[in-house]
Hints:
Layout: E1 19-20, H1 23-32, E2 35-42, E3 45-52, E4 54-56, E5 59-65, H2 69-74, E6 79-92, E7 100-111, E8 113-114, H3 118-132, H4 145-149, E9 151-157, E10 160-166, E11 184-187, H5 209-212
Antiparallel strand pairs: 1-10, 2-3, 2-6, 4-5, 5-9, 6-7, 6-11, 7-10, 8-9
Amino acid sequence: MTHVGTTPRTTPSRLAKRSTQELEQIYAILDEGLFCHIAYIEGNSPMLLPTGYGRIGDKLYIHGSVGSHLMRSLADGREVCLAVSLLDGLVLARSAFHHSVNYRSVVLFAKGELVTDEQERWDALEAFTEHVMPGRWAEVRQPSASDMKKTMVIAFPIVEASAKMRTGNVNDDEEDLSLPVWAGVLPLSLQASSPIPDPILNPEIAVPAYVEQYNRQRKA
Ligand SMILES: Cc1cc2nc3c(=O)[nH]c(=O)nc-3n(C[C@H](O)[C@H](O)[C@H](O)COP(=O)(O)OP(=O)(O)OC[C@H]3O[C@@H](n4cnc5c(N)ncnc54)[C@H](O)[C@@H]3O)c2cc1C
């Protein structure tokens, strides 16, 4: 198993048994998640924005318009804290106090690196597309020179990161166990519903198997 090193800011202060620095676990959560939240300082104010991402090896990539405030801000290499969360269930205890959630999450501290190499930019956009919808990149019109010009790509090295997870059932206090209250876990997961075709789609074009069988649950 490979671990990222623990730093003072990735050291859990409590419930350390729920945390891990194992890269395999970190990657599995990142690969299952669809989007992240990125926190950074803008002027005198904290900012937190959700955005999509893709991963290639030990780098996480985001992309956006060259006019995007987020992208332009992060291109200068400032520190960010990025989080990806997967919600697996609601833990309904007999007491309000012991309610909880089952989850898997990753926190990553990094400085953005503006990607200028054209091949790496291309690979990052492919990784992003395949991350969202595996099988899509090979079928669609790929980015034109003009599309590429309008797009900024930023890489974040996955070096200073942590994963944390809660699994299992309720954890009630002994004296509450006889309360006449239902207790247990309500599992939650991201499920696709039936695809809705574009109203002007040629009706001869069938829904691809990768859309019909879409499933976010990966290795974690
Ligand atoms: C969907 C969801 C809901 C949650 N709801 C609650 C809630 O209602 N109340 C609550 O107290 N906690 C909740 N948590 C857990 C919460 O994220 C923190 O782990 C927890 O509050 C401990 O915070 P702390 O400041 O003591 O962290 P510390 O242990 O002091 O954090 C130190 C370092 O540990 C790592 N770390 C901490 N938390 C996480 C994490 N979740 N994922 C990855 N790395 C982490 C980071 O590197 C962080 O910098 C929830 C988590 C998720 C994903």
